[in-house]
Each structure stands twice: as C-alpha cells, then as structure tokens.
C-alpha cells in the first residue's frame, strides 16, 4: 500500500497549486495529464474491484457481493456501481483494452461502451462466425485512443450489427427504457434510452414545442428549453383528457393544502404536498388552481377526512372557449405559445375574491404563468394586454421612433 499512499499524497498536494498563475497552455497540459491520471485510477479501481469480486472479499464485511459493498462502503449510486463492476469484467475479458486502460489511454465511458462487445450473446455470435476477436479488439482500441467518443460508438455498433447481418429486425420496444427518480426535495432526474426511430419521434416533438415556445428576450439554454418542452408535452396530453383512466380517475396532478395557506400571499415554500409527496409552495398551488379543479376536504384532529365536498371546476368549459377565442395565444408580451398550451389565469386570483369571468381571465403558458405569479403583472387596457416587470416598467416589443 506504500505506493498507493504516495500517489494519494501527490494528488492531494495538487490542491495547493495556484491555478491563476498558469498560462492557457499550462492549464490545458495539466488537464490532459489529469485526464490520463483519472483514466489510470479508474482502470486500477476496476481491476481491484474485479479481484475483490472473485475473492468474495465483501463477505469480510458481511455483504454478499461487491455491488452492495460499493453502494454502502463506497457511497456510490447504483449506475456507478454497475459501471465499475462491469469495467472490471471487461478488462479481464479484453486484454488489449486492459492494457490501454492501464496506460491511461481509454476512459471509463469507453470501457462501458466496449463492454457490449464481450457480452455472452456477442461472444457466442462471434465464435459461430469465426471472428478473430483479438483483431477486432485491437481495431476498436485503436479507435478508442485516437478518435472522438462518437466514432467509437459507431464502430461498436457496426461490429455488433455485422455479427448478425441476416438476423430478424430487432423489436424497437425491447431496447427502450425510461428511469425517473424523485429526490427528497421533490425534484426529478431521469434517463431514457430509445431506438433510432423512437428517439427521432421524441426529439422532433420536443424541438417543435421548444421552437414554438421561444419569444423575445428568451435567455433559456437549449437544455432548459427542451426541459420546458417535455413538461409542455405532458401538459398537452393531460389537458386533452385522452390518457388512460387510472382506477376510475383520470390522471391529474393532485395537491393538498390548507385553506389558510392557500389564501395567505406570504406563505412560503413547503405549504402544500403533491400526490407523489413533494412539498411545494402556496404560490405554486395558487398558480395550479387558476385553471384546475378544487375539492373541499374537512380533516379531523387525527388527520382523517371527515367530509368531502363537491369538486368545483374553477374555469368551466364555456368560459375556456371564450377566453381562447379572445386571446388566441399566451398574452404575455412577446410570447406566441398557442392557446392549447396555456392555462386560464385569474388576473385577480379567485382566493382573493377575483371572479371567474371573461374580464378577469387571461391565457398564459406555463413559463409566463409562473412569472406572473412571481412579480410580473398583466393588465388589459383598451382591448389589448400589457405586461409589466416587477419594477413597474412595461415590456414593449417595439420602441416608438423618435421624432
């Protein structure tokens, strides 16, 4: 362990370097060296994990395998554990890859990609076809060490396709997956894997919504626009009412909030709870309630519902049609989001005594609905909508010409 401790000490000493004293060239050279060092560390870690796996070393700590040990003792996420264990097995199966890893020339992401070439199915197909695995491995390593990651993806895909050129067309649904994870604060992250055609469909739909949702002064990044587009796609599907019924109830976003918190404009975050357990603010609930259904529930002292009132639709269908006909799109200055993307916003909120009527209603897309509930204001004057910033200045698309 002496050499390993020396290496760790050397890495720790790097944190004392003043990076502001380095030139651009020095910083890039340092980055290259650190990338190589990380590749070497990843390779050695994977090799050690594989040896520990074969030796059943986790039994020493009362655990049955390295995956459970890495999740608990290593504090790694499930995806990182799987990638690390797989990398160790790949290095054992592909000696040329292992050598390139030890030299720091191949990244952990590349190893994860190369793992597809040594699955039991791929090895069986290669043996049946008389493939020279050493030659294929050498060719793939050459691409890995000298070309962008995208080229290695293409090379691996071409090799796997060539193993079974006459086989049946794969079922695209077998390779599709979507993983969603809700975090303690209620936010979500996820990952999806789609076939070429399925991915094209999703990308086309999101790009169309993202492009349509852009307006003057939009400073969102591409990732943010696509994230908003995904939510808008779900909004459209939920609003259409065509989704499958779940246990006699149409799918919907449910929120539970006390009536005192709902009417209190000063109430902060965490005042309400969604159906899936996320805590959200009262302001967010008021926004959702603008164009939703409200049900009165009387809760007893033991948190048991005592009375369930009749559900009231805040914006009835006939009013929605009238607002759509008048506004036609989001009324926030500069936005052209179509009516079917929009909620009906109460200019004076209904919990504050605002009437559910045409004069007190306006179409707002989700993004601008949020802004209006966080400082921006809209007013209808002389038959047209005007938008004002939180500081009271009006947003105008075209400044008047000076005369």
TrEMBL record:
The organism's place on the tree of life at top rank: Bacteria
Pfam families tied to this protein: DUF222
HNH nuclease domain: residues covered: 318-370
Protein name: HNH nuclease domain-containing protein
Annotated source species: Blastococcus jejuensis
